[in-house]
Amino acid sequence: MTDAAMMKAVVFHRYGPPERLSLREVPVPRPVQGEILVRIRATTVNRTDTATLRAHPFFARAMTGLLRPKMQTLGMDFAGIVDGLGVGVTAFQLGDRIFGISPDVFGAHAEYVCLSADGPVARIPGDFRFDEAVVGEGAWYASSTTGLLSEGQRCLIYGASGAIGTAAVQLAKSRGAEVTAVVGQRHLALAERLGADKIINYEDENFTEIGETFDLVFDAVGKTSWFACRKLLKPNGIFTATDLGPYWSNILLGMWFGITSSRRVRVPYPEDPPGFVRHLANLMAEGRFRGVFDRSYPLENIVEAFRYVETGQKTGIVVINVQ
Ligand SMILES: NC(=O)c1ccc[n+]([C@@H]2O[C@H](COP(=O)([O-])OP(=O)(O)OC[C@H]3O[C@@H](n4cnc5c(N)ncnc54)[C@H](OP(=O)(O)O)[C@@H]3O)[C@@H](O)[C@H]2O)c1
To answer: Is a pLDDT exceeding 80 seen at residue 263?
Structure first.
């Protein structure tokens, strides 16, 4: 590769709506020591990308840049081919088919990205295609809740049709938990296919009135609250959520319960991204995890993909194909 090598990348310089994104020609990055150059074949547009583009919630700017974004290219999920090796990289070889997440620097909405070889990246197991391997974002967030479950525990997952919810059902089952999934009419068959033990159609039935109790209730779409769900919880049961909740109630209640020495409300943040991606690769290899995919767009139409993801109506994952 020469100094003049250029690539297509989707860039943005100011927070705001999807129209702030534009497809540009930029130099191909060069891997430094310990990095791999990944030729991206598939990525996703997910709720992390849309929230980061809009700097929502506002305090997220503490990490992503106060006035302007620190990173110019979004894209957290990637699948592609190792196309260059920095000094000292031994874990991967040129041509390896890999996938993973880039939660700190993003950068996958481009033809190439440089990432740490020690980071959240693993070889794609078996014969998963690139567009079937971009499964990390939702699963990683889901793992922060499903990691609280032990074998035989009962959990209810509200919103089991999104990227996080579909992953949560599979990860909870892989931990031996009993799963009740709450979805709308159009996702009943999906929830069954994912292995949920019981399925509730929230359009037909008020799931908070089913008269059962759970070790864990997970609001996987930020559409309910601890107040609505508290009678579903066993005495030591935990309520977790992906979002702050009405009037930041999930954060405030989490702090309150922390002070009173119980941890009954949490907005958990996932840890150990490299370890999680390796675990996910194992689950995929064993046939215990498969992404749920909605639709795909070419990189050139990424603005349209952002608009669709922002509707909050996607089923699982929206893929961007990068050729
Ligand atoms: N701030 C961040 O950086 C960040 C990052 C990632 C995720 N999150 C949060 O995590 C949550 C989940 O993310 P995601 O990517 O998994 O979401 P998603 O894929 O966009 O979720 C969409 C799904 O939720 C279902 N849904 C919509 N309204 C519902 C309701 N009232 N009850 C039950 N299901 C409903 C939709 O189907 P139906 O409408 O047909 O039911 C759709 O299948 C979001 O609330 C997002 O804000 C935040």
So the answer is: no
Across the range 286-311, mean pLDDT stands at 98
Would you say residue 258 has pLDDT above 80?
no
Averaged confidence pLDDT in the chain: 95
Q: Hey, how many other C-beta atoms are within 10 angstroms of the C-beta on 223? A: 15
Quote the tokens at residue 18: 């999807």
> Which atom of ligand 1 sits closest to the CA of residue 48?
5
CATH of the domain spanning 138-266:
3.40.50.720
Distance between Cα 29 and ligand 1 center (Å): 34
Count of Cβ atoms closer than 10 Å to residue 31 Cβ: 22
Distance 221 CA to ligand 1 centre (A): 4
Fold that domain 6-135+291-321 belongs to in CATH: Quinone Oxidoreductase; Chain A, domain 1 (3.90.180)
Return the best residue to mutate from 169, 187, 221, 307 for the ligand 1 pocket (most ligand atoms within 8 A of CB): 221
Q: Are 53 and 15 in contact (CB under 8 A)?
A: yes
pTM score, whole prediction:
0.96
Give the number of other Cβ atoms within 10 Å of residue 303's Cβ. 18
Burial class of residue 127 in the structure, from the number of CB atoms within 10 Å of its CB (0-12 exposed, 13-18 middle, 19+ buried): exposed
Cα of 312 from ligand 1 centre, angstroms? 6
- Give residue 261's pLDDT band: very low, low, confident or very high (50, 70, 90): low
Using a 6 Å CB cutoff, which residues line ligand 1? Answer: 46-48, 51, 138, 141, 159, 161-165, 184, 186-187, 202, 220-223, 242-243, 312-315
Q: Residue 3: helix, strand or coil by DSSP?
A: coil
The sign of the CA dihedral 182, 185, 186, 191 is positive
CA of 202 relative to ligand 1 center, distance in Å: 14
Place of tokens 């990348």: 9
| pLDDT tens, position by position, 155-186 | 999 999 999 999 999 999 999 999 999 999 99
Parse the chain into domains and list their residue ranges.
Answer: 6-135+291-321, 138-266
Task: Please determine, for residue 149, whether its predicted confidence score (pLDDT) is greater than 90.
Answer: yes
Provide the token pair at 62.
């503490």
